[in-house]
Amino acid sequence: MATIVSFHAHPDDESIATGGTLARASGEGHRVVLVFGTRGECGEVADGFLADGEALGDRRAQEVEASAAALGAHRVEFLGYRDSGMMGESTNDDPDCFWKADPEEAAARLGEILSEETADVLTVYDDHGGYGHPDHIQVHRVGHRAAELVGTPHVYESTMNRDHLRRVMEAAATDDPDFEGPDLDDPEANGGVEFGSPESVITTTVDVTDWLGAKRASMAAHASQIPEDSFFLSLPDDAFAMAFGNEWFIRTSPPALGVEDWLLPAGVE
What we know:
Blueprint: E1 3-8, H1 13-27, E2 31-38, H2 56-71, E3 75-81, H3 103-117, E4 121-125, H4 134-150, E5 154-159, H5 162-175, E6 204-207, H6 212-221, H7 231-234, H8 237-244, E7 246-253
Parallel strand pairs: 1-2, 1-4, 2-3, 4-5
Antiparallel strand pairs: 5-7, 6-7
Helix pairs in contact: 1-6, 2-6, 3-4
């Protein structure tokens, strides 16, 4: 049995980016641990959704417990930082936010969990955090440093497949001529945001088709951020499978020698 620690910025990130992979790992008998840098205090929520006096961070922490149950995760931990908000917002300057955290201190907090779990695999994000969110970029930095500090042997960067996104948008435009998605080839057209990674640098493509039920349930658990009528959960099964049936990673430690179809390298079983 292997232990996978999956490190994320906010509750719900685990569902969208890695939910199928984690559900598969748990279903195959491996230990899955979720770690979050923040409780997602800066997320957006519909008016009246929260009870009087209820803090969004508290609600999102409750939601992630339900998500973890759907994925079969065995442990959930928070590093104790505040959500930094999107890049350029005033919340980036909060001294308690994750973006302002000392990477060495944050890496030590994560490293303690990695050591307790004797983690075989750590998942983080790519170097631009998938789409430029400061907390996601910090996950990349802190996660890699923590793995260095404690010697976690296998590190994977969760990413979006930019070429796949392009194909999905082309299919959507065929069905709906009015559909307009981001220009994936011109980050400046998207406020400087770079989406995901090209297929040429992706080392690991995990087919999670058989675990889409768990992934959808995990997403639905985050009702404050992914309401039932959201684009994600409103997709019919075939479209949901096209959008979310694969999850992508870049193995950086040790570097992958070829194309892989599973998160656990040979010998880590």
